[in-house]
Amino acid sequence: MTPVVQHAPAFTPEEAIRIAAGYYGLAVSATPLPSERDQNFRLRDTSGAQFVLKIANSEEALEILDLQNKALGVLGAADTGLVWPRIVRTLSGNPVVPVGEAGGQAYFVRMLTWVDGVCFANVQHRAALLASLGCALGKVDRALMGFSHPAANRKLYWDLRHASLARPHLALLADRRRAQVEPLLDAVEALNWSALPQSVIHGDANDYNILVDEAGAQVATILDLGDMVRTATVCNLAIALAYVMLGEQDPIAAAAQVAAAYHRERPLSDAEIDALDTLAGARLAMSVCYCAWQLRHAPENEYLNISNRPAWQLIEKLAVFPSGWARDVFRRACGLDAPPTPGALLVSRRKHLGPSLSISYREPLHIIRGWRQYLCDSGGRAYLDCVNNVAHVGHCHPRVARAASEQMALLNTNTRYLHEHLSAYLERLTATLPGPLSVVYLVCSGSEANELALRLARAHTGREGVIVVETAYHGNTNALIDISPYKFDGPGGRGRPAHVTVVPMPDVYRGRHRKADSGARYAEYVASAAMAAPPAAFFCESALSCAGQVMLPAGYLRNAYDAVRAAGGVCVADEVQTGFGRAGSHFWMFETQGVVPDIVTLGKPIGNGHPMGAVITTPEIAASFANGMEYFNTFGGNPVSCAVGLAVLDVIRDEGLQENARDAGEYLLKGLKDLAGRHPLIGDVRAQGLFLGFELVRDRETLEPAADEASEIVNRMKERGILLSTDGPLHNVIKIKPPLVFGRADADLLVDGLDGVLRG
Ligand SMILES: Cc1ncc(COP(=O)(O)O)c(C=O)c1O
Hints:
By secondary structure, the protein is α+β, with helices and mostly antiparallel strands. Helices cover 40% and strands 15% of the residues.
């Protein structure tokens, strides 16, 4: 038993009834209420009026009870919009009375009127409620601004100024947990407290002390003034925020809503806003440390473990965000550093940006920060990014950002000079590929890579023709639009050029061949095309992206490559979307087909957002291209790009991201398949690692595409904070290709969100 708990009173309900009768002249029934260090009884008299009988811990000093009573008087008289309990005096007119227990120990007893309400912890935290809480806290702090009491100038364990009192308990935590908590204490110890205005605060607006009206829309009152203390005023808000964030999917955004409403009532200074996240973090740290200490004294207390869990979950969740993220969100929520409004940005975009570009979502997003698998909008809301395969190792990975900025500050030239980053990168990149693929051209985009691949193939074969797969997209240049049915057969397209042959998409769900031999069957179209018009190249993605996340059936590329090579053509694997470990089982998606291409093209993930691309081919093809005309690329392969490329490869290796793609991909695939079992709208689910898609159909027999539904789901998921997008020729496939740091917990969130949206 912990010392404070040891001093808790232990009156029976009968004794409480006797106290009510003897000291207050009330005939009541009594029900015990939970309290750790005091004892509280809910009383009801014969007229139905209700009270709380509060029997203080024997350690509690009389002046602390006086502080609470006086503060209640101030709050009751102020315009806080809340209902405050009134003090019921004894028959002899005293607000506090000492009462003896059977054992002889004396305890101070008070009686308050009852306030109805539901615990904040037990209601859904809608935006209106969060705003109401912020407003209530702001009003309470304002009301107590001029209040003083000698007892408030005490040294209280829970005062965030004394967070370091929790430090000795760090030793009770497991290493991993200590590593998460220690920085929270370091941060609060480094705060400049003299910059923070002080006043007496409530100090314990936790989710069980905040009562909400029956509708769950408004805060009714804030109970338990037992932790009142004079300290930095902003601590009151910070303590509340620590509890507001518990269990929230987007804790920082929820806290920001409370902070913004608070700021409207009691404007926070810059220093206060900047201290908020540190102070809230300190409260969490103190809470888990104190709990570890309590558990040491009462290891059998399962309740302590359970109540501690949400705090740990929150600490883990917050640890994911880079330092300064929450502070920036709070600043913007409070109207500081206000970003331009989305409306203004749209106007200038419409005026000056080429109009042949669409924007995502019905209500466009204004994204201002990225971190790992999250994006943050200008309103401070975090989104789980399930589609961005460019931010391959996670948005704004610090190792990649550091590699770029350090090299940028040192030197950025071109490939006409020797440079160790260039040589190292060429070695490292080719080491990931099968032997014959040993010659690299470094370029600046996926389009440049495919454009060059086309030139290489044409130079090597002396031919023009290209075989491509239905709905393929290979890039935005003239030559690539000509080999991209997605474009030339799409809006504004001018149809298939004569030198291009389009073969059917090897789709085993909707296509002509759906049986075990479908790989070979679909490859026959490539073979006949190659025979009819021997091509320079066969371009094919190793899993089809724009075509709607279509996985190639087994044997497709092997048979197709054999046929193309037999006709003297070159096989190009477009790995722009699929490469760098996304496949999970293999580093390159073409490896899942057991083939070795003649040319591989890379883009998107290669630089984690830095504009890079690469073409890798055999020495023979490279020799055919070396006809005297130089290939120079001003930016391709510059030292900054090579430093970035190396950092990306390092992170994939050091963080085990290919393995994570396998694990999280398989886990998500199972989740999506289970979902398809419950929702007939999902006709097909397909995946290889973290490259997944699911196709929506109105009828599983006719496969009538559900494009409107797909678009609706994507927009509704965005409202839930999860970013997805649609693709496929019928616009009915929802694609999933997140940064490779996407884990099982993210998969759960995604599947739960989809389930919710699909249930309507
Ligand atoms: C399969 C594929 N190839 C090539 C490209 C062109 O890459 P970039 O936009 O970097 O030029 C894309 C872009 O979406 C692509 O998806």
